[in-house]
Amino acid sequence: MNIIFKVPALERPSQLRRVLILLLTTQVFLSSTLAQGVSRNEFGCHCMEYWTCITSGGQPYSYCGLSASSVCCFVPFNAKPVGILPRLRRTKTCGKKGSDGKKEGQAEMFEWPWHAAVLESKQDLYVCGASLLDEMWVLTAAHCVDDYLPYNTENGAVLKARLGEYDVSTTAEPLRHEEYAIQRIVLHPKFDNATLVNDIALLELKTAARRRENIDAVCMPKKNDFKEGSKANCYVTGWGRKDENSEHSVVLKEINVPLWNNPSCQNALRRQFGPGYHLPRTAICAGAEGRDACDGDGGGPLVCEKAGHWYQVGVVSFGIGCGQRNVPGVYTRVASYESWIKETVGHTHP
After folding, report:
1. Are residues 44 and 137 in the same domain?
2. Are residues 168 and 180 part of one domain?
3. Is 43 left (phi over 0), alpha (psi -120 to 50) or beta?
4. Higher model confidence: residue 227 or residue 241?
5. Does 121 map to a domain?
6. Which domain holds residue 254?
7. Could you tell me if 234 and 313 are in contact, meaning their C-beta atoms sit under 8 angstroms apart?
8. What is the mean pLDDT of residues 302-328?
9. How far apart are CA 8 and CA 6, in angstroms?
């Protein structure tokens, strides 16, 4: 429920004291904002830009000041700022996971707040999994979206990103998902659809996403953060099948997967593809018998934990079956594309 704070009629001294306490605590809460030029008017509220009010956790009451976007804003002492998600290059609070319910194979609500879904805009058809990098960008696999590239424009987006989704069979959740039109698809320039080398793409949102309990950004790894074959705690998430014979999941699933070293992964894949197969250095492998990404998980994130933050190590690219013995899944190694990601994001939003 939205509460509009109004100045009451002052009939008794006790009421006056309560109003003064409210205004005093509001002034303390906004002291840093006031130092940046926000003024207080004769009604006791603070005259500020509309979005400054909203992101401070306040409630606009009426227009004020000379600017057409300035409002009279009341901010309670215990307000929690909403906040726009940080840009990738200055992210400091990324990768904060929600609580784990310890259900084998099933995520908890709000547990993986960066997991996103890419959908066709008109039909709501599921295309692929994805992850939220910052307020304007979503990361997915290039093979998921390359067919849509000729049709996607700023004024006629054929794709959208759904953020904050958990159970796709219901809308009766405490926090509903939010949808954002995708205005631009950026494939890696060296993506090869035949071999799935450089299977990575960035999707630019038309409007900025905002941090919620069920919507947040994942961290980007550095080059040597998670070496192949390390004992890192890693998970892959998605709404794909749990195994080759099951239906697609309606509740977001999570699978704990071990990382492989690339020589072992290459040898395992050569038994499937032949001795001439070469695993690119821009790939990383993960999985075990019964623990693997599956059909419907493509484009989704493989994340690993470090110092209480979760970093996206891979993007689901391809596999052979699901969870077969000695056959890992193959992921695009995100750290190999750090420069490309930052260059793409930085060039669009200086």
Report:
1. no
2. yes
3. alpha
4. 241
5. yes
6. 234-335
7. yes
8. 95
9. 6
Q: Quote the CA–CA distance of 122 and 174 in Å, as a whole number.
A: 25
Cα atoms found within 13 Å of the Cα of residue 99, Cβ hemisphere only = 1
| CATH number, domain with residue 142 | 2.40.10.10
What secondary structure, in 3-state letters, does 202-241 show?
A: EEEECCCCECECCECCCECCCCCCCCCCCCCCEEEEECCE
Q: Report, in angstroms and rounded to the nearest whole number, the Rg of the chain calculated over CA atoms.
A: 24
Number of domains in the chain: 3
| Residue where one domain finishes, among candidates 27, 47, 74 | 74
Is residue 204 domain-shared with residue 344, that is, in the same domain? yes
- Beta strands across the sheet bearing 70-74: 39-40, 46-49, 70-74, 59-63
CA atoms within 13 A on the CB side of 43: 17
Q: What is the pTM of this model?
A: 0.75
Residue 17 has pLDDT above 50, yes or no: no
Higher-confidence residue of 203 and 171: namely 203
Distance (Å, whole) CA 221 – CA 305: 10
Assigned domain for 214 exists = yes
Q: Is residue 226 part of a domain?
A: no
Q: Residue 25 and residue 4: Cα distance in Å, rounded? A: 17
Residue type, 340: W
